[in-house]
Amino acid sequence: MVNVGILGATGMVGQRFIQLLADHPDFEVTALTASSRSAGKKYEDAVTWHLETKIPDAVKDTVVVNTDPREVKDVEIVFSALPSQNAAKVEPKFAEAGMKVASNASAMRMEPDVPLVVPEVNPEHLDLIETQQKRRGWDGFIVTNPNCSTIALVMTLKPLYDQFNIKRVYVSTMQAVSGAGYNGVPSMAIVDNLVPFIGEEEEKMESETLHLLGDFDGETVNNANFGVSASCHRVAVLDGHTEAVFIEMDDDFDLDEVKGSLTNFKGLPQKLNLYSAPEDPVVIREEDNRPQPRMDRMAGNGMAVSVGRLRRDEVYSNSLKYVLVGHNTIRGAAGASILNAELINEIL
Ligand SMILES: NC(=O)c1ccc[n+]([C@@H]2O[C@H](COP(=O)([O-])OP(=O)(O)OC[C@H]3O[C@@H](n4cnc5c(N)ncnc54)[C@H](OP(=O)(O)O)[C@@H]3O)[C@@H](O)[C@H]2O)c1
């Protein structure tokens, strides 16, 4: 077993890590960190638990420590669910101390020597680890996963990008409240309402998508060359982001071929049969009223993206549109980091 730690273990994403790692065949949770408000307390006393399953017995009595590598002993991998500003300060310290950091936070995502990876989409970007370790003189390293709405989008764009010439993408999101953390959106702001702004989310979707689909030339990642424009909105859904996607291609296309490329999409995690990999990364729904967050967010144990309403755009030529749903704290956060770590554990 590989000993792993969770940084920010008491938050929304930290709790998902605890839940998803409870019965993991290769990773054993041996360290939990949070802020100084929680340090020194038993996990069950420090956390306000929000998930439907119970706090696993194995971590209930674990004493939470400060998010400081000197307080995290005998751990090979740390999963980071820290707020970005804290992540920027402490994740490099964990890597410097020799640990492998699999991070959800946005702080290091766009650093040129830090891989930003979705294992089904761009596993080859992990080769940047060697550059990172040489350049920074670290024994450990940092690998990041993209933001929750980007992950779901890029998992559907990857098979299309490989087969067709994408000219531009518009995406309009309807994002769950859990995406902002427990204290993120007050109930008075979101019940009976929709908030048409999520700070920095549109910029992240637009830049991270092109980076993930970019070519790695052995030294740097050269972004994919098409346009992505996003509009992001918070809706009164607990878990599961919905996205309306509009794609214009350079040339005409066959809708059945589009459907086939999404349905048959498999990546390295499926080939390697990694523990958290969904059998089908993209699940096509044929019903007119699917996908819906409540019904489809748990597809593939929360690790698959559901796509429905796939249709040709009758107004603009060479264009198609669809709706997707992905689980924001599983595939979009904790599950994404765990899959990155499983891949690293298998191939490095
Ligand atoms: N929620 C999502 O769907 C989602 C998706 C993708 C990425 N992310 C990213 O994942 C990260 C965590 O998000 P979240 O929604 O889980 O946030 P959250 O619920 O607010 O949890 C934050 C965690 O960080 C700890 N923390 C806060 N300030 C700290 C400090 N100064 N030093 C050390 N630890 C500190 C908190 O500990 P205390 O309990 O002690 O305060 C808590 O464990 C963020 O970077 C977010 O952008 C979230």
Portion in helices? 25-40%
The top level CATH class name of the largest domain = Alpha Beta
Helix/strand order, N-terminal first: EHEHHEEHEHEHEHEHEEEEEHHEHEEH
The proportion of strand residues reads 15-25%
Main sheet attributes: strand count, strand direction, barrel closure: 6 strands, parallel
Bound ions, cofactors and other small molecules, one mention each: NADP nicotinamide-adenine-dinucleotide phosphate
Subunit structure: Homodimer.
Catalytic activity: L-aspartate 4-semialdehyde + phosphate + NADP(+) = 4-phospho-L-aspartate + NADPH + H(+)
Binding site for NADP(+): 10-13, 37-38, 178-179, 328-329
EC number: 1.2.1.11
What is the structure about, briefly put?
By secondary structure, this protein is of the alpha/beta class. The chain contains 12 helices and 16 strands.
Can you give keywords for this protein?
methionine biosynthesis; oxidoreductase; Dihydrodipicolinate Reductase, domain 2; Rossmann fold; globular; alpha/beta; 348 residues; 2 domains; single chain; six-stranded parallel beta sheet; binds NADP nicotinamide-adenine-dinucleotide phosphate; NADP binding
